[in-house]
Amino acid sequence: MRGESLRDSESALAPLLLLPAILYIVLFVGFPFVMSFIYSLSNVTIGNPHYRFVGLANFAAILHDTAFRQALANTFIFTFTSIVIVVVFGHILAELLRQQFRGKWLVRFLILLPWTTPIALGTIGFLWFFDSLYSPIDWLLRQVGLLGHAGALLGARSNLYWLGRPALAMLAVITVHVWRLLPLAAVIMLAGMNAIPQEIIEAAEVDGAGYFRRLFQIVLPLLFPVIAVAVLFATFFTFTDITVVWVLTRGGPPPNTTQVLASLAFLDSIEGGDLAKGATVALFFFPVLAGIAAIVLRLVKKAVVT
Amino acid sequence: MGAAMLKRLLRRGGLYAALLFFIAFSAAPFYVMLISMFKSSHGLMNPANNPFLFVEPPTLDNLRFLLEQSLFLRFLFNSTVVGAAVVVITVVVAVPAAYSLARLAGSWGQYLGIGIFLTYLIPPTLLFIPMTRVISTFGLQNSLWSLVLTYPTFTLPFCIWLMTGFFMSTPRELEEQAMIDGCSRLGAFVRIVLPLSVPGIVTVVVFAFTLVANEYIYALAFIQSSTEKTIGIGVTTELIRGDVFYWGALMGGALLASIPVAILYTAFLDRIISGLAGGARS
Questions:
Q1: Which of 3.20.10.10, 1.10.3720.10, 3.20.20.80, 3.30.450.40 would CATH assign to domain A66-305?
Q2: Best residue of A89, A116, A247 to probe chain B, by most B CBs closer than 10 Å
Q3: pTM score, two decimals?
Q4: From 3.40.50.720, 1.10.10.10, 2.60.40.420, 1.10.3720.10, which CATH number describes the B78-213+259-279 domain?
Q5: Residue A106 in contact with partner chain B when CB distance is under 8 A
Q6: Helices (DSSP H) in A99-145: which residue ranges?
Q7: What is the pLDDT of residues B189-222, one digit of tens each?
Q8: Strand intervals (E) in chain A
Q9: ipTM associated with this complex
Q10: What is the 8-class DSSP label of residue A285?
């Protein structure tokens, strides 16, 4: 009898405790998410919120828009390049942090700084590093004679004008993404490495497997799920980010050299007033995010089975 | 013996050299912020001066400008208010939901939990456009409340996920014992589980707060009035006006606002990472 009433209250409690969360997520994530699809099929602007259905006209229009194409390509280039660098160097950094040395907490704090500080503020430091006149990088290059005199390897002008030249501006954006994500990847991989039983590696060593053989045949395969998690998070953060580009270049040098989907969506919708076009641009996140979601689901399912 | 020692020494040397390289890469922007904050504009804005050292005597002018003539403290205050409000909402909503998913909801709870986590993958950079309409419907443009209302879109899914994992790893027996002793289900949750969950809840508090400190696009889209800006957009839009940079103050502001967040985050990082990495496993 008592067990029965307990179960009754449990079946009432479960939905009751969940209700506020579900309600909020449906109203403030689900509803706007659906709205962005509906906007993309309309001609809604900030000035004229009257809804008129235009079918796929927005999609057709932006596919011919050079700014959009550039932003789409850049988003993929920035994400892919950053992730590759972050995984390789993140693994090296994780190996280093496993070693014993003095002052580890301070080293850890300093190395983690880029991830633990708000990204908009961290990017300000880089704004100075890439400044057209006062760039400390340029100063160093001038000191070692690579820049700023006739015949110098990087040019006779006294500055590189990082954010004013297309290739360098793109390099600058990637640098900041790598800078920010490297600690996250390293820490995730470190957690994964510490979970690998040391006996397996020692057994392989006894059997005569060299460092690289151990790395590629034992450590990396065992680390794969953790590397996947690091890659997923890093991809998500880079792919959907607006802050780095917005603070560093505003999509420049003109017209759209470092424009990404997020910054273009913002320019089109909030600054340009064309909500429909902005929503259409932002929806191009969706296929990649759906891909990430599918991989997360597979990882979860695998974990449940094993 | 000598050769072995030499090899060891080289290994140590290599380790320190590699660590130094990574530290330089990670910390260089903060070092330059720190030193530039105390430089006179005259000394700072001279391309011939060493940017990593004091060439001219240090000054407190930038700091004075930042604290007395800019809205820096106001931005900090705004961010703290929004952060506190969002943290309270997140904890109050996420903790019971996570408990329900972990203990009460049965097998569909697992699917629901994964579903909630997946909503984390819908980023603010996609939601902000329809959200501007939601905000104007509520009449919240230029108000900090617009941020309080929208920031749980990213704090909630993640914190529910984090707390669910936490509840799953705490033993059931304690609550069962309490219920045998006459506690109700809810009573067992409030009196037994919640006090045990303080470490998990503190992690959620810290994590939600750092997420709020990081947020940029909602604040950029909803807030135009200078006095209502939060730290991220405040520093990057008010201390940079067109081509005029208040460089010393700008870098000082970025540094001063970063450090507390960084210390908080580092202190709780291991728990957050095990939530991130273990999330896929739990």
A1: 1.10.3720.10
A2: A116
A3: 0.91
A4: 1.10.3720.10
A5: no
A6: 104-116, 119-129, 136-143
A7: 888 888 888 888 988 998 899 899 999 999 999 9
A8: none
A9: 0.89
A10: G
